[in-house]
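Table S2 (continued). Query chain:
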Amino acid sequence: MFTGIIQAVGEVAALERRGEDLRLRVRTGALDLGGVRLGDSIATSGVCLTVVDLPGDGYWADVSAETLAVSTIGALEVGDRVNLETALTPATPLGGHLVSGHVDGLGQVVSARDEGRSVRLRLRAPDALARYIAAKGSVCVDGVSLTVNRVDGAEFELNIVPHTLRETTLGEFRPGRRCNLEVDIIARYLERLLLGEEAARPDAGVTRELLQRCGFVSGTD
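Corresponding output:
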């Protein structure tokens, strides 16, 4: 598990294709690797990867075909910058929100405009994920825990403050760029619990009728 609070920005140092899989080397820069051991997890732009080698200035990780299919890792090139966070411990301040590092889908930047000293980002989520994104709720974008300011269908807006722009890759976001999205884990599990066996249906979803049946709203609300 992670918090979505980025600890450092690293750089892709090498990419080795191995059949349908990929071996990735990341140079970690300012990230403290003193407590990292083989088998530990590091969130790499929001993707939980297992450390398989520690060459000294970074780490190697194996990336499966599944991860390549649902994240931006497969599109990385040598020299690209990535957001880094080591796994949380019982003593880690939870300054963001609980993040699993399991990417739910790919978003796309619709617009980026200055708003005072901040930047207002507008992103589009896949239709299947849009229902989990709520105004003032949390979303993880390329590993960064962010608060949703506004929702408009499958599109949502985020306000990125100067510190986050400096300390993450979000300052590089431009229209058309794709990014890793992880929705709030609580929203996903709540839907599963409410739907039960109905969750297996492709058209399943939380409706007013379902909430009423479960006692969350009354018939007169």
